[in-house]
Amino acid sequence: MKLRREPSKIVPPAPDRLPAVIESLLFVAEEPMEIGVLAKSLGLPRQKVEQAIEQLIVNVNGRGLFVQRTGDRVQLATIPDAAPYIEQFIEVEHGQLSRAALETLAIIAYRQPITRAVIESVRGVNADYAVAALLARGLIEEVARAPGPGRPALFATTVRFLEYFGLQRSDDLPPLPDLPPPQPDAYELPAEPSEAEDEAPAAIVEP
């Protein structure tokens, strides 16, 4: 009979070492980590972990990495100063984002969460390819479904988006002039002829 191994119990790190230990966990994590998972792994109350994360966010100290936080998830990311070099590196490695994809990404970033139909009403063109390209790169994700007919997907930016542009939070986006208002009717089919139009006599052409 195979016995189940009990997880080993460790002593929680000292308060002065807690930020460094959290930084180590974020470094080895392959994806953004939930704060609750960090607290459970460290055997500490969530409040203490939150305080240590805030210390990491504040204390960049000229290093190349810092902590990004989106809601309940955190991860290590590169400093904003390195953004142009990272962007160039990504372009060399994966190819540059098209202008259409960048425009779509900007609309999503400033209006999230947003549906594909609203994106298209702002841009005035079909957004299927641009949205697919952004999803493939992990810069946006489906976060919910909008109420109404068909329950269309709602898209928002990801932590990868923050990393790509060297931002710490979504609120760090630079101010942007007001985008044109959505035009919901832009893609409606022409209205069917009314009964009065159907019954209207054809014009008589004189010989």
Secondary structure elements and pairings:
Layout: H1 18-28, E1 33-34, H2 35-42, H3 46-58, E2 65-70, E3 73-78, H4 83-94, H5 99-111, E4 114-115, H6 116-123, H7 128-136, E5 140-145, E6 153-157, H8 159-165, H9 195-199
Helix pairs in contact: 1-3, 2-3, 5-7
Walk me through what this model shows:
This protein has 207 residues and is an alpha+beta fold. The protein has 2 domains: 18-78, Winged helix-like DNA-binding domain superfamily/Winged helix DNA-binding domain (Arc Repressor Mutant, subunit A); 82-185, Winged helix-like DNA-binding domain superfamily/Winged helix DNA-binding domain (Arc Repressor Mutant, subunit A, Orthogonal Bundle). The chain contains 9 helices and 6 strands; from the N terminus they run αβααββααβααββαα. The protein has helices at 18-28, 35-42, 46-58, 83-94, 99-111, 116-123, 128-136, 159-165, 195-199; strands at 33-34, 65-70, 73-78, 114-115, 140-145, 153-157. A 3-stranded antiparallel β-sheet has the order 1-3-2. A 3-stranded antiparallel β-sheet has the order 4-6-5. A hairpin with a 2-residue loop joins β2 and β3 (73-78). The radius of gyration is 25 Å and the shape is globular. The relative contact order is 0.11. Mean pLDDT is 76; it is low at 184-207.
TL;DR?
By secondary structure, this protein is α+β, with helices and mostly antiparallel strands.
Features:
about 210 residues; alpha+beta; Arc Repressor Mutant, subunit A; three-stranded antiparallel beta sheet; 9 helices; 6 strands; disordered C terminus
SSE string, helices as H and strands as E: HEHHEEHHEHHEEHH
CATH architecture of the largest domain: Orthogonal Bundle
Strand proportion: 5-15%
**Looking across the biggest beta sheet, what order are the strands in?**
1-3-2
Distance between the termini: 103 Å
**If helices are DSSP runs of H or I spanning 4 or more residues, what is the number of helices?**
9
Reported by name, the CATH topology of the largest domain is Arc Repressor Mutant, subunit A
Sheet having the most strands: 3 strands, antiparallel
Count of β-strands: 6
Q: Tell me roughly what share of residues is in helical segments.
A: 40-55%
Average pLDDT, to the nearest integer? Answer: 76
